[in-house]
Amino acid sequence: MSIEFIGFSATQEVSETVLGTGPVVNKAFLGAVARAHEYAGFDRVLVAHSSASVDGFQVASYIASQTEKLGILLAHRPGFVAPTLAARQLATLDQFSDGRLAVHIISGGDDTEQQRDGDFLNHDQRYARSDEFLGVVKQTWSSSGPFDHDGALYKVKGQNAGVRPVAGNHLPIYFGGSSEAAIDVAGKHADVYALWGESLAQVEEIIGKVRAAAARYGRADKIRFSLSLRPVLAETEEQAWARADAILARATAKVQHNAHFSGRPQQPVNVGSQRLLATAANGKVVDERLWTGIAALTRAAGNSTGLVGTPEQVRDALLKYWELGVTTFLIRGFDPIQDALQYGRELIPLVRAAVAEREAQRDATRLAA
Questions:
Q1: Which of 14, 74, 84, 108, by CA, is between 20 and 30 Å from 356?
Q2: Are 71 and 43 within 8 A, CB to CB?
Q3: What secondary structure letter does DSSP report for 97?
């Protein structure tokens, strides 16, 4: 199994501990973030999406222009662009970026957030839409000639795309969502199923569910897994926890002034956030070094759990997830550029070396048998 690291891009310097200032679209900052991740050895960066975010296609295009090899994971929400058009847009961007694009499908778990863009489908209807959407997108990429589609939500007649992805007929599809409806769609379509940083027991449980869903579609060996975390590193464990405490103190002072966090409901409606809050309810620290402080503070606003320790300790914690089947880690810090560079110096090489060593040992064992 290969190992992949994904970072996080943004058009403005902002996090739980940094209030955004200046223009929302800061090209200099975005370029610096992208180049820092490329220099640090990340495989990709995520271009996130929400009802308030800037246009991700243009952000991804700019990242491609500022880098040479860095991959891009573009979040896309079905329901606002026809699947045939989305397929051509994605394929076009993949061509201009020389095959560096992957797409992360986010169906939407919050009715209020969806309605800001005029989407009034309920939760399960949104995932049914993602299912049909992805079917049409994949057919647009792979069809050898004109095709028709007559579904519940989309009708197409004679589509024959003039542009396809660089690899021929497919882009890597990442898929998120922890509800039963989401897991079923992921099992059918996803190359990589993405989950937030939960406990080892929770991750093992959901990997089993997703693999069972994939097996229903004959894809049990086709799906991989991604885990999102916020590593906090220092030279000693004591210093790392002191740094985590300082981050939480800064975030506590900042979050109340950040509309993205202060406007969240006390009880999130999406299952992924509910699962993170269940993790946080078990204490500040779970599984030795899974830190839940930011998740509790922000009511699980996305990727908000961390791993705290020395680089070697965090490496070992990541390897426990790798042993469960996680082969992609989406990691980001609280100081976007500085933390990305630190991960590239101190963490990513350690994890890659350890995984390579363990894979070599497994190969040797298989050959000996």
A1: 74
A2: yes
A3: T
What domains lie within the chain, and their CATH numbers? 4-368 (3.20.20.30)
pLDDT at 104 over 90: yes
Q: How far is CA 302 from CA 16, 187, 234, 254, 306, in A?
A: 11, 22, 24, 17, 12
Cα 1 to Cα 33, 71, 83, 319, 352, distances in angstroms: 28, 19, 31, 13, 11
Q: What is the DSSP string of 184-217?
A: HHHHHH-SEEEEE---HHHHHHHHHHHHHHHHHT
Containing 277, the helix (H) or strand (E) segment is helix 271-280
At 193, the amino acid letter reads: Y
Instruction: Report pLDDT for 265.
Output: 59
244 membership: H or E segment, kind and range: helix 237-255
